[in-house]
Request: fold
Amino acid sequence: MKTNINTQQVRSAPELRGNKKSRTRAVKWVLFRLDEQNPSKVRVFGQKTGRSNFTELARLQTLRRRERERGREMWRSIAAKSRVVARNFGATKNPNNSNKVYPSQSHISVWVSSQSSENLRFLSYFSSNPNENDHSPPTNDDSSIISGEHNDTQFEGLSDQIPLPFSENGDARMDTCASGDVSVDSLAGEENVESETYEIDVEKLENVLHLLQSSDDGSLESTLDTFSLDLHEEFVVKVLETPHVLGENLIRFFKWAMKKQDLSVTTRAIDVLVSSICSSELRRKNAYALWDLVREIGEKNEGLVSVGSLNQLIALLSKLGKGKAALEVFDKSKDFGCVPDSETYYYTIEALCRRSFYDWAWIVCEKMLDQGPLPDSEKIGKIICWFCKGSKAKDAHKVYLLAKEKSKCPPKPALYFLIGSLCRDDGTVNLALEMLNDFEGEAKKYAIKPFSSVIRGLCRIKDLDGAKQLLSKMIVEGPPPGNAVFNTVISGYCKGGDMKEAIEIMKLMESRGLKPDVYTYTVIISGYSNGGQMEEACYILSEAKKKHSKLSPVTYHALIRGYCKLDQFDKALELLAEMEKFGVQPNADEYNKLIQSLCLKSLDWGTAEKLFAEMKEKGLYLNSITRSLITAVKELEQEGLAKEVSIEV
Reply:
């Protein structure tokens, strides 16, 4: 039976005149059904009357599987949806108190299941405006909605005809309702009404995830078409965020979803897709497929691709060792409307340096230096180390200077590596020397490694005065120099022939409480031997014997070489015998040098053969050239004797 609902009819309903429980049951079963031909007519189905209509409703509910599923979910979601609908209602002020505002229709819960236009329905519960004499605000307890803990006057505010505006997708929307008659057309025209919150169909989501987690063939897209999915952004994002899904299938699903008209691609969806692919297993095929998809979207829709997604993609290509592809992504960023940030530059440089494309990496780094967005200190240190490994220490120094201007100090290992790399090139040693001025306090106290590198570089380029000044500065200000630093300066002076300065440095070393080691004495002996000052060299040898119980073969080798230059072979042979007495075993180099000198300068092949026999006894090997030299000198001398005999005869 069709009737027009008004306030008096609702109040006079027999179901509402019983006790509280009977009223509650009656209100729960009020079901409004909008007639398509006459929207003002509303059908009422009660608990005790119109049961044939309930039979008809049950038959209609079996038409679609989707309707049955939403029916089962109704009571679990009714409390939550009541709050959403309640927020969409307007408010009316109490005439007795203008400072208090009450909703015109409070505690309203609406559940709408979308079906055909002929079967639109929803379940509602209405209460009247607050009593004029009661100025207390209405309670927000949802339990009162279900239990019906209100008096019999709660329906007095209803109009004779209930307005029921609907959205295009079948969801019910309710705007501000006041007491009296309200037309349906006036409410349906409101465009600023907030739609009901989207809910994900759990069963369909599980079906899609099961397909994506198991399918790896060409039937994925066709199977997705059979699901009749409602492609909302939340649904797509939920699928993309699910772990343990093949990256290839995620990309195929996203491409399939892009072709659907009911889904608009958003920056959020792209970010989630890129994040999911980059966080999964590293596969080159997926990386290239993802880049092709992002490039397609970015070229069609400028500003849709975020710089964060590009950074993750470049980092993925860097891990895969695809430097050229990472550079392509970097070059395309401006075409997509993205402004590269510090992370973009860093990951691009990393990808190129991993493939030893240092020239291309420096081009990207120059852009970073010009535009100014520098990464953190740790990453700056890595960039410096990469360029130093690529023999671009001078370029790495430029990065260091800009970081210094912006108060970003790279880690100590990176600075030490930079200084050491600068010292390997004669043209950049002075740059390394200038960097030492940046060490202060505790950092300078323990910076012995970079200071030692600079002293070695200065001695190599023969800037001995600069090395001596730096050594003196280290003694006064720190870091305190050790034997290695003093030996480097002494060796530089000895190679330059300035033995006086070398002896002074050794005395300065002793005054600092440092004991000259065997290397120190060997370097000085070698310097004297090269200059033919054998007496001074022998004196240094005697000093070394006093302070060290065992010397190095190199020490005697320097003296033997000096005596051989002066053709004093007897003293050279004495030193060779002294080595064994002092516990130093001569090696093949000493024998080889002495034999060659005996054969070439004195033609004493007899002594050379004796030394060769000693080498055999000690298990030493004499190279074939020196053996041939002994044989040649011997034959030459025999031929000379034969000629002399023939002449005398």
In short: DSSP finds 32 helices and seven strands in the chain. Residues 106 and 577 are 116 Å apart (CA to CA).
